[in-house]
From TrEMBL:
Compositionally biased intervals (Basic and acidic residues): 22-42
Keyword vocabulary terms for this entry: Phosphoprotein, Repeat, WD repeat
GO CC annotations on file: nucleus
Matches recorded under PROSITE patterns: WD_REPEATS_1, WD_REPEATS_2, WD_REPEATS_REGION
Residues in coiled coil: none
Organism from which the protein derives: Solanum commersonii
Record Pfam families: WD40
Protein name per UniProt: WD-repeat protein
Amino acid sequence: MIAAISWVPKGVAKSVPAEADPPSKEEIEQILKSGLLDKREDSDDEEAEEDMNVDESKENEDDEVAIALAAADALGKVTQVSSAGTDGIIDGLKELDMDNYDEEEEGIELFGSGLKDLYYASNDMDPYLKDKDNDSEEDDDMIIRSDDSVIVCASNEDDVSHLEANGETNMYVHHALIIPAFPLCTAWLDCPIKGGERGNFIAVGSMEPAIEIWDIDIIDEVQPSVILGGIADIKRKGKKKSIKYKKDSHKDAVLGLSWNKEYRNILASASADHSVKVWDVTTEACNLTMNDHTDKVQAVAWNPFAPQILLSGSFDHTVCLKDGRKPSHSGFKFSVGADVESLAWDPHSEHSFVVSARFMFVTNSIYVKALFALVSLENGTVTSFDIRAASSASTSETKPSFTIHAHDKAASSLCFNPLVPNLLATGSTDKMVKLWDLTNNQPSCIASRNPKAGAVFTVSFSDDCPFFLAIGGSKGKLQLWDISSEDAVLKKYGKYVAQKKPSPKS
């Protein structure tokens, strides 16, 4: 399955990624201390019984081989057997003369008459080389050009988790990194962690409490460039074990990540331990911990217009809006009556965001000043709220601007188009992806498709090519939808095709 997708902007990735250096002694010790190997002991014990069964069958096979060898040996010593079949076998063994197999006969030139028979001056002269351009084609495949977009997928297949860097044009997997834990979310960031003006990194949240940041410009890397939080030590005493976490670490799975594009060293994380944390990736330190929720926090999102404002959504059926400069303030909360699945700010309005939730209904009371919200539900319903006129009084209610039945099952992912105002994409576990025009609060579905991705878990528009929508789902194969190929989209938004994404106003 594909759990998360992140686009790498054009011109950022190295044209030829570097080869990873072998892990140092210190890095190996760090892996051992991380406890990842210890955590697998239980599963290893469970597999031990299966291994014993395999060993037993192997012993049986060995016994059969021993019997066969004994029979063959006995056969070789038989001198008075008259059957034609047995005589043929014996004659064949004598002809092979295995006892003198390694002895060379005189007069035979094993390597020809000289070096001229070993090689040709060029591949073009060698008649046995059919695919003479393979090497150059492979080298060409490894080059990432400045006008190439790269899509990084966090996926899991056969219990092995990967980060795969895919080419946008041919969906070719350029290179992949094996990661130690099942990925749940990703965030691309260009903070120059290793120096220079900018980097090319993917932050990964997983079932582990640590946040790993991997360098996408390195091939076959075995260790992340940065690890935020995580397990410091695991001690076992009998069947009991005690876990010591690193300072300010999450204590449970990391469910959501958001990179701050204005303050490029800042990363926010949401966790199943009910907390939201703000990290400085350059110092690898947690600057702020917020405990405003009473259940798992599924998603976080920085406001692109006011980069100090952070939105978080939780399974406690609330969304919290906070100013990172005033951490002691309780912030503004509103109830959505459902487990929040995802959050997204509208890139065309500083007052707008969308919320994806997984339940059967949404309350009409939202108490955040000057916000417009879209709420997606488990029954496929998407509801819009315009609450700029709402009162902060807890008794006030806001009527929805509109409600649409978007999908037959849960709308698992939402994404605004970065170029076209009021254009929203929704993906669902009903295997469908739909495009919605929200102009004047009168939503209409202008295109829909079954991308053959299985249950859809994530959809993401490209910033560089806003009419490309990347789609990931349960089948584990990345899909790319060029929405400009849809007549309805081209007719309504054709004027935007040749335009570039406008940068957010400060």
